[in-house]
Amino acid sequence: MRYRLDDIATFLQVVDSGSISAAARRLNLSKSVVSKRVSDLEAALGGDLLQRSTRRVLPTDRGLAFYERGRSILRQLDEAAEEVAEGDGDLRGTLRVAAPMSFGTLYLGPVLFDFARRHSRLALTLDLDDRMIDLAAQGYDLAIRITRPRDSALIARRLAASRRVVCASPGYAAAAGLPRSLAELPQHEAIGAAEVSSTWLWQFEPFAAGGPPRSVAMRNRITVNNGEAARDAAIAGLGLTVLPTFIVADALRDGRLQQVALDAEPVADVIHALYPQTRHLPRRVRALIDHLAESCGEAAPWEQGLPFATSERRVS
């Protein structure tokens, strides 16, 4: 039985990506090379590993079993190589990072690219997608999530609070006025940033510490699945929206949007770096997490210079 490590790694990437084309893009290879590597592996193992269709590929039963064992073994091999290479002081190898689309493009990308510039022997893959992914199964070293993590199989390091603000354009404020309390919110047009129905709950801090958040049902005039699109709809004067400050910071600074002062603040999220539990965390992953934590600092850097006071409350 003769097979190559490149063929195995390519097969794992095809399963992770869901198609030959997507795997080829991630590996920077042609589709024909990816297909041949998988076919060579199937020939070496004596059976089909994938069910192929025109739009998607799925692992067969034996392909899924090989994928689960192969992913674990390949990770262990990477860890062994990392342990041997750690002594020379240079960071090397490949880092695969998953992050939300808006945070990745507006803030995270430049921070990661600065890290890559400092460590020329590192290869970096950054996947921007708002879907929740299985880090260990899909071979990611690290994920950035803006939420309150609940997955006990992952280790989380807090990077920063992600404060949210209700905002509107000066044009909308002049035409419709602005609410001053949560009770007045439903009287206004709303812009929702989620793949949901036209009704969406906005959540605000509870009356008392430890209590449930207060929810306000808003009727969305505009519903989009991207925060930057919701920001742009608000700038166009189409209604109120509630968004993380990293999305609206520039628009608040230059006056295209203004904060809506209410009798309660929106519930904040937390930006975490998450990584799988492993016996040996590669030094390159540890170094990247430290770099991200340093870049965030004590206060979120994207909030510097905003025309309103930042909250003193710490979110944990």
UniProtKB/TrEMBL annotation:
The keyword DNA-binding applies. InterPro entries: LysR-type_TF_proteobact-type, LysR_HTH_N, LysR_subst-bd, WH-like_DNA-bd_sf, WH_DNA-bd_sf. Residues 1-60 form the HTH lysR-type domain. GO terms for biological process: DNA-templated transcription. One of its GO terms (molecular function) is sequence-specific DNA binding. Keywords: DNA-binding, Transcription, Transcription regulation. Belongs to the LysR transcriptional regulatory family. PANTHER family: HTH-TYPE TRANSCRIPTIONAL REGULATOR, TRANSCRIPTIONAL REGULATOR-RELATED. This is HTH lysR-type domain-containing protein. The lineage of its organism: Bacteria, Pseudomonadati, Pseudomonadota, Alphaproteobacteria, Rhodospirillales.
